[in-house]
Amino acid sequence: MKNIRHLRSLVSTTTMFAMGLALLVGATGASRAQDFPSKPVTLIVPWPAGGTTDIGMRALASATEKYLKQKIVTENRPGAAGVLGPQQAVQAAPDGYTVVQIPITVFRAPFMRKTNLAPETDFTYIIGVSGYTFGVVVKSDAPWKTFQEFLEYAKANPGKINYGTPGAGTSLHLTMEQIAGKLGIKWTHVPFKGTAETTSALLGGHIDAVADATGWAPLVNSGQLRLLVTWNAARSKNWPDVPTLRETGVDLVSNSPFGIAGPKGMDPKIVQILHDAFKKGAEDPAYIEQMAKLDQESAYMSSDQYRKFALEQLVEQKKLIEDLGLKQD
C-alpha cells in the first residue's frame, strides 16, 4: 500500500509540475508577444544595395518604424537570384526580430535545383506588399527604336543578342525566355547580381539589352538608355509613351508580386503586430511617394492571403519551369 500511495503521490506531483511548466511556457509566450518589439527588427533584403528592391524596402522600413515603435535595420544579403537571403532567414529564431523580403524566385528554387528550402513550410507569411514594373532597355544609340525592331533583329540573327538580368531564374530571365519561345527567337542570357552590374555591362557595350525592374529609370530619364517595352497589363504612369508587351503582340504580363515573411513557428500575435505596422507603413505618404518614383503600385495581401498566394505560386512556378525546360539535375 505504501508503494501505491507513493506512486500516486509521485504521479500527482509530476502532473502538477507538467501543468505548471505548461502554464509558465504559455505565460512566457504571451509576455513575449505583449512586449514585442522590445528591440530593433532586422529586415533582410536579398538583393544588392542600390537596386530597385533595396530602395523600395528601405523606404518601407523607414515608413514602418514609427508604427512599429522600433527601428527596422535593413540588411542586404544578395545571392542565388534572391534566394540566399530567405534561406538564411529561415534559420533565425521565430521571434519576429528577423523578417525577409520574399521574391518570387523563392517559389521556383525547389524546381530548378537541389535545395533544402521548402517554401510551403519554412516561412510564416506576414504581408504581401507590391509588385514591380519590368522593362527592356538598350543604349540610347542602339539601332533599335522599338521593341518590334529589337525582336525582328533577334529573330533574324539567332544567338547574336546578349541580354542581362539580375540572375538566372528571376522573372526577368524567365519572361525573356517565354518571349523567345513564343516568337522562335534564340538569344543569350547573361546573369548578373543586380542592377548596378547589368547597367555597367550595358553602358560598356558588353551586352545588347537589359531586362530589369525600374533601377534603369534615372538613365532612361536622362537619355542614356532607351526603354523599349514594359511588362505590366497597362502602360506605365511614368513612361506612358512606351508600349506594353501585349501591345507589341506578345501576350504576357509579368510583375512578380512580393511580400515579407519570417521563419516558421512565429507567434500569431507577433505576426499581427508586424502585419499591421507594415500595412500602415505601406499606406504612409512618404512610402507611396517613393513607390511612384519606382513606378510600383500596391499589391497588398493579408497574412492569410499571402500564404494562399505562396501555395498557388508553387504550383504555377513548377509548371513554368517544366515548360521552359529549366530544371537542373
Which CATH architecture of the largest domain is right?
Answer: 3-Layer(aba) Sandwich
Gyration radius, to the nearest Å? 24 Å
Major sheet description: 6 strands, mixed
The name of the CATH superfamily of the largest domain reads Bordetella uptake gene, domain 1
What is the count of helical runs?
Answer: 12
Distance between the termini: 68 Å
The class by helix and strand makeup works out as alpha/beta
- The number of E-state strands comes to 11
Q: Mean pLDDT, nearest integer?
A: 91
Question: What is the string of helix and strand elements?
Answer: HEHEHEHHEEHEHEHEHEEHHEH
Number of self-contained structural domains: 2
Spatially, the strands of the biggest sheet line up as 2-1-3-10-4-11
Strand content: 15-25%
CATH class of the largest domain: Alpha Beta
Low-pLDDT runs: none
Q: What is the CATH third-level topology name of the largest domain?
A: D-Maltodextrin-Binding Protein, domain 2
Give structural notes.
By secondary structure, this protein is α/β, with parallel strands linked by helices. Helix content is 45%, strand content 17%. It is built from 12 helices and 11 strands. It has helices spanning 2-35, 52-68, 84-89, 109-112, 119-122, 147-156, 171-183, 195-203, 217-221, 268-282, 285-293, 303-324; strands at residues 41-45, 72-76, 98-102, 123-130, 135-139, 162-165, 188-191, 209-212, 225-230, 258-263, 298-301. The strands form 2 sheets. The protein has a 6-stranded mixed sheet.
